[in-house]
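Morning. Coffee machine broken again, so started the prediction first thing and wrote up yesterday's gels while waiting. Chain of 126 residues, entered below exactly as on the submission form.
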Amino acid sequence: MNVPSNLKYTKDHEWISIDGDIATIGITDFAQGELGDIVYVEVETLDETLDKEEIFGTVEAVKTVSDLFLPLSGEIVEFNDSLETEPEKVNSDPYGDGWMIKLRMTNTEEIEQLLDDGAYKEIIGA
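Came back before lunch.
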């Protein structure tokens, strides 16, 4: 199970990479493994400002559809367009080419509530 130590995590199995006031967000290796083959990623919240825990999109796998919850408050400034034609990137490279959105954070204090790799590994039993 791949859980990079340089990222932050949520109990909802999302990872967050922070660069200044921009957070890149995707789902973890554990999440993509549980979902199975991902066939569609939908994010219709581009250019919207949402609060932490609001749904920003959905990911559809062969066996289920799951909501994607925003781990931090902010404006969604970019969607990984390549996922429209190659959603399987979420399975093959969840921490790289399979990223989902970029968010301009509006409350950086929320970062302190995210999990580090050790706390996330405890949740998934890794």
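The chain has one domain: 8-108. Going to sketch it on the whiteboard this afternoon.
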